[in-house]
Target: Putative ABC transport system ATP-binding protein
Amino acid sequence: MIKLQNIEKVYRTDTIETLALNGINLHVAKGEFLSIMGPSGCGKSTLLNIMGLLDEPSNGQLHIDGHTVTKLSDKELAGFRNKRLGFIFQSYHLINDLNVLDNVELPLLYRKVNAKERRRLATAALEKVGLSNRLRHFPTQLSGGQKQRVAIARAIVGEPEIILADEPTGNLDSAMGNEVMDILIQLNQQDKTTIVMVTHDEQMARKTHRLVRLFDGAQVQ
Ligand code: ADP
Ligand code: ADP
Model:
């Protein structure tokens, strides 16, 4: 589903050059739930952002679902990201001025889905994460775990093949973290969504199919 070949990432500024990824080779199978761990600064977010087409590698090739995405134009990349990928972040990235339903409908608005269909799909996604009773609430009125569940509903509303999650339980206590993790496991098992998750939490990582450890931009063997 996702194949990385000799992926390198160098961040350059006028004075500093940082080798963030040093030749990553990784194959994520369709339907797999993979976690990535490693110390701060080892390249986890960079790797996830490259898989999520949010950032470009300096060298190497990235294939997703048989497409060599390193060769696509910016417009094609945006389309690919919008249709096939869902993102979840540690800090939720919800829009505080929009209620729960409107937050979840947002990706569909970008896809020009009509209002009635947006409402139907967003309601269904929120039901899946157990938030049918919070549709008209605003993010500031929700707990951290509820906010992350809204973010998951937003990530899945367009039925992505792949979910990329950057420390999805990082801001949550263990009870709320486990709730979020259970939802991700359910999406993986029932909907067969491929999931790649960065985490600092060994306990969460152990619930996934496979763990890849990074150190200084390379995989620990
Ligand atoms: P992690 O997610 O494992 O904490 P990151 O992928 O964020 O690590 O960062 C990997 C390395 O790349 C770090 O040394 C970091 O300082 C560097 N880095 C990340 N983003 C940038 C950037 N935009 N410009 C320069 N260096 C960066
Ligand atoms: P934090 O550690 O501050 O919680 P996140 O995990 O929320 O960081 O975000 C990781 C990276 O993804 C950041 O570099 C951020 O700029 C970027 N990012 C966050 N949200 C989006 C988004 N909706 N679209 C594109 N990039 C994003």
